[in-house]
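Margin note: ligand = NDP.
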Amino acid sequence: MRRVTVFGATGSVGAQALDLIGRATDEYEVVALTGASNIEALAREAIRLRASLAVTADEGRLGDLRDALAGSGVEAAAGRAALLEAADRPADWTLSGIVGAAGLEPGLRALRHGGTLALANKESLVCAGPLMRAEAARHGATILPVDSEHSAIFQALVGEDPAAIEKVTITASGGGLRDWPLDALADAMPEQAGTHPNWDMGQRITIDSASMFNKAMELIEAHALFDLPADRIATVIHPQSIVHALVQFADGGIIAHMGAPDMRHAIGYALHWPDRRPLPVERIDLARIGRLDFHEPDPDRYPAIALAYRVIARGGLAGAAFNAAKEAALDLFMARDIRFTDMARVVESVMDAMDPRLEAAGITLDMVHDIDAQAREVARGTIGGHPWT
Ligand code: NDP
Ligand code: MG
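Resulting structure:
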């Protein structure tokens, strides 16, 4: 029996992982499932998969969780400390599926077991890529990317010499507002930006797809995972979301990874790696799709992309500041305190203001937490007195 833990079990990625695990319950022993606000789903899944422990990150919901689990034999716990305690319970395979920087520490702790960390939480790598990699190396743990583009790169690199990589390109759908006139973007409402043409994902990443802050995060993620310099990492708009990434090698050959836009492919690949097993995802028919389009992202429409290259060039704590500023800007947009197009302006203002504080030879968790808190405060401060509010 393989011991598995799923962080963010009530989310979009988490639920899809549980769908796969639930199809072969005799193979898995579920150590812990975690969620936050969705107590009903957390309890239901913990009971269904006979988890030993269910944790809600929300301390105030312990009573609700206990009630929902009454008589099931599943242990209930709540709060940040309980979340970290869940990470300390040995597991062979852990999915890091919490959204936001809140996912960093549980993932880091899980690496100590020396097993596999299936990493959907890209924020971990954006905030603290070198720290994650060092912790994995210290404990002999394996980080497998779950983000579809990075899983695609990883799969294209099997059996290849990383030194022969010339360039890696990750594709972007362009998000839910890609066909809007540029001057209409400022008026986009959260529910409009929160609709995706191809992927069914959590609300935050869907809005980040419309702004391409998601792709900006993924460029930094590719840099952190595959040791690639900025000039070897690119993105291209590909509206069909069939090709997920392309790796070009020194001989000019390109290996592209294709598949239906279904996260269960990338999650399933990480679950069964190094094997490939049948997965319940749609098989694509290229003749029916007919054409695959690619074009350069317009820098005026997607200012987040230039910010990502700035973060990669800056190094140190720039990723932690960038991620926190982006999360804070997204909170402000979702609360309707700023407009869609203001998010990039807020993040850029934060990066400018924080720049002298971003130098760091080695990153520690305390440093990341400190910069994260500062960047959120600076981000919230930018909305007072600005002409765009
Ligand atoms: P969702 O918003 O759907 O789910 C987030 C999960 O995290 C939920 O289980 C939620 O609990 C939990 N959570 C939220 N806040 C906290 C907190 N402060 N502490 C602990 N747990 C918390 O997100 P997604 O599944 O879309 O995304 C998860 C991660 O995977 C993100 O990093 C995202 O960028 C990445 N990713 C997602 C993809 C997708 O297809 N969705 C694709 C590629 C990457 P609850 O719902 O109970 O409140
Ligand atoms: Mg992705």
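The CA atoms of residues 208 and 214 lie 5 Å apart.
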